[in-house]
Amino acid sequence: MQATGADIIKVVSNADDITEMERIFYLLSHCEVPAVAYSVGERGLISQLLCPKFGGALVYGSMEGNSIPGLPTLESLKEAYKVYCMDSDTKVFGLVSKPVSHSKGPLLHNPTLRHASFNGIYVPMFVDDLKKFFDVFASPDFAGYSVGFPYKEAVVQFCDEVHPLAKSIGAVNTIIRRPGDGKLIGYNTDCEGSITAIEDALRDQKYVNGRSLNSPLAGKQFVVVGAGGAGRAIAVGARSRGARLIIFDIDLERAKCLARAVSGEARHFESLAHFQPENGAILANATPIGMHPSTDRIPAAEETLGNYQLVFDAVYTPRKTRLLKDAAAAGAITVSGVEMFLRQAIGQFNLFTGREAPKDFMRKIVLAKF
User: Fold this and answer.
1) Which CATH number describes the domain made up of 191-335?
2) Residue numbers annotated as active site
3) Structure confidence by residue, pLDDT tens digits, 153-193
């Protein structure tokens, strides 16, 4: 194509895996004439968002009212990602998940990185194979990751080192590529993010290092629905505060494994429909039940919600899930997954940048956009 003497060349592919984007980035970096190269579809989205970093001549976006699957909108390119601010030194952070379209991480992390004058960009990464992903994207350009559903437990094996808290939980939601040796270090910011949100909702108290000597969770029955990565983080956090855990999961063996780790009790998810909690118990949903677009489902029996003092939902799309609406109507204190999302993101920013997160700015972003 270069030999034709064209002023600009363009290559568009259909991606079956996000790791194919590495070839596109190589092409852009080594092409001798201005080039446009990207892959369509959700797995190829990073090729469009990161095009300027690797020397691409143009970035494509869809116009308002004419969205195209897998193609970013012009508004997001200009406002959320501000791709024109990118250069070859821009550090790449992203959400490793499947799917990723629901994530609001870019709406929070990108403005915060710019506010802090940190040369970085945060992008969604639709990953099918963790091993292939980490093998291919091994350069210092890819500096850190958030880890979402369904990989928080599985990703532990791909970390070179795991922080003690994340190791005790058995789940990682944040990975940093350590400067110098390039090793992947796994952390968990979900645990304190969720538990402090619940504690703060139960009483107005300042915490030292995320802990209170007399946690309002001490001695309470704490019901966790879901024994995956988020459920493990919540359960370990609740146990550290002295709560009594009951774990429900569709996979009873997985529930039993977590119950053993937190000295709790395991039950099958189906039995939750008939479960009668103690008055004043805490309920935490750590499953995708109620997430957009299936927003009409709740994980617990509606008639039991009045027994709970507080109901927490890790789902944050929508912000007010049906579970939270029904729980509020029944008289329970409610805590949105948005609060957990904000707090864990603050922890991630600290790890990503090595700087103190601008907490007030991040909260303003969440209140305005979520």
Assistant:
1) 3.40.50.720
2) 152
3) 999 999 999 999 999 999 999 999 999 999 999 999 999 99
- The CATH T-level fold of domain 1-87 is TIM Barrel (3.20.20)
Q: Pull the structure tokens for residue 317.
A: 């799309």
Record the pTM.
0.92
Write the single-letter amino acid at 189.
T
- Kindly report, as residue ranges, where domains of CATH 3.40.50.10860 are found in the chain: 89-188+338-370
* Residues carrying CATH 3.40.50.720, the chain: 191-335
- CA angle at 328 for the pair 324 and 333, rounded to the nearest 5°: 90
Is 89-188+338-370 assigned to CATH 3.40.50.10860?
Answer: yes
Q: What is the Cα–Cα distance from 72 to 220, expressed in whole angstroms?
A: 46
pLDDT reported for residue 213: 56
Tell me which residues of the chain have a pLDDT lower than 50. Answer: 205-212
In angstroms, rounded to a whole number, what is the distance separating the alpha carbons of residues 272 and 227?
14
